[in-house]
């Protein structure tokens, strides 16, 4: 049952990615973002099997991490928009800047996970920290797949 819930939640998450990238009125966009955040939180909650004590310690760390992760996701969205603007007449200089920013974002994502590791270890056992990072990595992989599927190669 847990696996089925995880698959359904991940599918919902992956379906939301194209919606997040579309130009929508601010109110509608905010509703979609909140829905995606709630779905992700539910996915994590269903798969973590936290005790009451772990719940109290984990969720503030989770919220803080998601806020910081949101900043990186915002940078990625700007990068995708910049790629789209430069796509038809991509210069070597534009490509160089896009690649540098892409790799910086990927590196910052790893650094973010590493910076939260001590906080997670204070809240959870090492096994549950590993589980949480697996969940985050699976979600990230789905998002990366969706982006790879939708973003064309440089001409």
Plain-language structure description:
The chain has helices spanning 2-21, 26-48, 52-86, 92-123, 126-150. The protein has one domain. With 155 residues, it is mostly helical. The N and C termini lie far apart (45 Å). The chain is built from 5 helices and no strands. The longest helix is centred in the middle third of the chain and has 35 residues, at 52-86.
SSE topology sketch:
Elements: H1 2-21, H2 26-48, H3 52-86, H4 92-123, H5 126-150
Features:
single chain; 155 residues; mainly alpha
Low-confidence stretches: 3-10, 12-21
Strand content: under 5%
- Continuous helix count: 5
Number of strands: 0
Major sheet size, sense and barrel closure? none
What level of helicity do the residues show? over 70%
Helix- and strand-based class? mainly alpha
- C-alpha-based Rg, rounded: 17 Å
- Distance between the amino and carboxyl termini: 45 Å
What spatial form do the alpha-carbon principal axes imply?
A: elongated
Element pattern in H and E? HHHHH
Tell me briefly what this model is:
The chain is an all-alpha fold. Helix content is 87%, strand content 0%.
């Amino acid at each position: 049952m847990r696996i089925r819930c995880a698959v359904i939640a991940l599918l919902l998450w992956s379906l939301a990615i194209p919606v997040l990238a579309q130009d929508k009125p601010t109110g509608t966009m905010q509703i979609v973002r909140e829905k995606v955040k709630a779905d992700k939180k539910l996915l994590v909650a269903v798969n973590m099997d936290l005790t009451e004590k772990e719940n109290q310690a984990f969720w503030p760390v989770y919220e803080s991490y998601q806020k910081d992760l949101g900043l990186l996701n915002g940078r990625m969205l700007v990068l995708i928009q910049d790629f789209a603007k430069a796509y038809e007449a991509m210069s070597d200089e534009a490509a160089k800047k896009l690649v540098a920013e892409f790799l910086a974002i990927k590196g910052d994502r790893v650094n973010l996970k590493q910076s939260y590791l001590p906080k997670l270890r204070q809240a959870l056992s090492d096994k549950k920290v590993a589980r949480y990072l697996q969940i985050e990595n699976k979600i990230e992989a789905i998002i990366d797949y969706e982006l790879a599927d939708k973003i064309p190669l440089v001409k």
